[in-house]
Write a sequence for this structure.
């Protein structure tokens, strides 16, 4: 087991070459946000923009469009109810996030299955929130369609649903066994988040705390992981995932020095400054 530390950020976050453009920093597609949980996919999209993704497209329902564009005008929109638009968006993306606020309706199940079916081997897929619960009901889809480069970001209850391991019995040995069967990276979110990689290495997070316990905190993490995977290619993708998870909690910890609670939107706003500091040292 390795402890993730600040040193890792220096390996991953570099100054940008002068001759580069938005196409060099990742096309991120975020899928989610039903009527009740629109904020989740907006936070994911906004986190991706603020963590440096070159182009972010949010696939959500029309009801969320004006809120999306008010909060993060940098993000583009595709209508989650428009099959043709979704097909094209899935085709073009480098990194896909599915699940924040998606809900578990039959339409949500359909879009999850479509995403798995269309997934290309060059693409990264981050599965979070409602999509993890859908996955727990349809493990056969996952085994049939999924390719490598899939990252699951469950909290302990979502992991219980997917792995069938009760929260109290979620030890590294048991978690690793199921993760290896799934053949996906697993970011198990909790106090002391643990990341299980395909090569069986286990990375442990020793930053972050209860000031992060606000709805939307995990949704925000998905956007940071997506942006990092879209733009940082000088190390292995496992290292990039570790660096993204560390950034989310280390930044929250920094902000907690002067704030009783740290909101997802505060983390989002402070990402560019935090990343600049890491790129300079
Ligand atoms: N603003 C928005 O739009 C927001 C939208 N959201 C979206 O909502 C959707 C549903 O996601 P969800 O996580 O809220 O619900 P669910 O999957 O039922 O899990 C909760 C259950 O698990 C249990 N639990 C045990 N351990 C836990 C742990 N370590 N961390 C957390 N929970 C833990 C917990 O136990 P309890 O609280 O009862 O003690 C409870 O029984 C999803 O799409 C998400 O993206 C949210 O992000 C909020 C902001
Ligand atoms: N006590 C805590 N210590 C460390 N991290 C925490 C704590 N409480 C919450 N978090 C972090 O907040 C995030 C919560 O994720 P999640 O439950 O998926 O949130 P949501 O679905 O509401 O966006 C995770 O990254 C988790 O590690
Ligand atoms: Mg969540």
């Amino acid at each position: 087991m390795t402890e993730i530390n600040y040193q890792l950020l220096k390996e991953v976050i570099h100054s940008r070459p002068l001759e580069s453009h938005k196409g060099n920093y990742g096309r991120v597609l975020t899928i989610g946000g039903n009527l009740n949980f629109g904020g989740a996919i907006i936070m994911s999209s906004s986190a991706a923009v603020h963590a440096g993704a070159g182009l972010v497209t949010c696939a959500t329902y029309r009801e969320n469009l004006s809120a999306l564009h008010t909060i993060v005008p940098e993000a583009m929109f595709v209508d989650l109810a428009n099959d043709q638009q979704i097909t094209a968006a899935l085709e073009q993306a480098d990194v896909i996030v599915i699940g924040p606020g998606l809900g578990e309706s039959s339409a949500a199940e359909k879009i999850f299955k479509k995403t798995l079916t269309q997934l290309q081997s060059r693409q990264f897929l981050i599965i979070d929130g409602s999509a993890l619960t859908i996955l727990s009901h349809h493990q056969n889809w996952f085994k049939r369609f999924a390719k490598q480069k899939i990252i699951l970001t469950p909290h302990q209850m979502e992991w219980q649903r997917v792995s069938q391991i009760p929260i109290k019995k979620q030890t590294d040995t048991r978690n690793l066994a199921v993760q290896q069967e799934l053949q996906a990276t697993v970011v198990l979110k909790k106090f002391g988040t643990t990341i299980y990689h395909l090569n069986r290495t286990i990375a442990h997070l020793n930053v972050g705390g209860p000031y992060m316990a606000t709805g939307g905190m995990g949704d925000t993490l998905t956007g940071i992981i997506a942006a990092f995977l879209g733009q940082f290619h000088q190390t292995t993708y496992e290292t990039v995932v570790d660096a993204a998870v560390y950034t989310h909690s280390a930044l929250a910890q920094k902000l907690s020095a002067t704030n009783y609670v740290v909101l997802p939107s505060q983390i989002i706003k402070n990402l560019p400054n935090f990343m600049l500091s890491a790129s300079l040292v």
User: Anything to note?
Assistant: The beta strands are 2-4, 27-31, 55-60, 76-79, 95-98, 124-127, 150-152, 185-188, 194-196, 202-205. The chain is about 50% helix and 15% strand. Residues 37, 39-40, 99-102, 129-130, 133, 155-158, 190, 215-216, 218-219 surround NPW (ligand 1) (CB under 6 Å). The domain at 2-280 is CATH 3.40.1190.20 (UDP-N-acetylmuramoyl-L-alanine:D-glutamate ligase).
